[in-house]
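W.,

You were right to be curious about this one. When I first looked at the sequence I had no strong expectations either way, so I just let the prediction run and decided to look at it fresh. Below is the sequence, 371 residues in total, followed by the output.
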Amino acid sequence: MSGSSPASTGPAGARFEGQVGAHYLLTMLASSEPRGLPGTTIDRAELQRADDGFPLDDVILHAHENTTGRAATLQIQVKRSIAFSPSDAVFKKVVGQIAQAIKEPNFWIGRNELAIATARTSRKIDGAYQDVLKWARQLGSAQIFFDRLNRSGTGNDDMRTFVAALRDHLHDAGAPHDDETVWKVLGRLQILIFDYTAVGSATEELSRERAVRVLPPEDAANASSLWSALTDLAEEIAGEGGDRDRTRLVADLVSKSIRIAGDRRLADVRSAVAEASSQALLDMDDRVGATMLGRTERVEAINDALDHGRYVEIRGDAGVGKSGVLRHFAELFSAEGGSLSSVPAEPSPAVGRLCAVSWGSTALPENSSAT
């Protein structure tokens, strides 16, 4: 097994990989929870380290859980474009890397997560594929997961095709591919969208906003310079197969005459907010008896709206299921970052607003509505 420099993937691919790497370097500077590994703080970020036992080698995060101190890792493979279809050679190659990762003796021990970062989303990625990954994380056994997947009216053909493709690629890579293993892999896997290649990228806008917060107030105008420096540095570190902790990263930036504000850690506060938000989500009912309400058409309408705007307002009469739809998206986003969720004391019968802002996740597009 061998790694490859981002430079070998071409200029556009290299820059995108650098931007994703810079995102996590900036997250480490801010002592924020990393996207894809909520509830943790990054101790060290490594780039292009396949030869050191990390098959998904573009970005590897070594972190610790804020409440327990337990170690956690996230391996991220960066692909500018990936379709996740059975015929997609890029997906097949990435699953081959996943097969190598799960063969590591200690992979299933502790918190070891996997992610695929891509620049381009689609209706299937936003909908069926993300829903499958959410089910795998939330459902308590492979049998329950596959019962739901195969149940008419709950699972759909897009979901089943995605899971079948993953299973076939694991088989071709010589890895276990039974129901238990497939369910466990899906439960550790995330698809992360970074729209850095888009015109007017919302993700880049958020990155620059975060850059402002790690600078001294008097240097806030240097946010764009900091972001550019981090992207260049990420490419440089990747070219060397290197790593950085926060101390070394700050030293690198100081050598470039960029000052960084003091470390601001709010782990205890975030933990308390996360607990309160979790309780708020439990108050949002999405079931009738033992039956889960999928509301597929409404969910797809919101996904379509999110392609065109950053905020979505959901309107409907009392009791039609606004809160259940909001819970669906809050739980979906919670895998990427902590979420702030609330239930109004006197909710309006006409309007439901999702207060489930996921820190560490990508921006929702601006000015959208779904009715």
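Here's what jumped out at me. The longest strand covers residues 71-79. And, maybe more interesting for your project: The radius of gyration is 20 Å.

Coffee later to discuss?

I.
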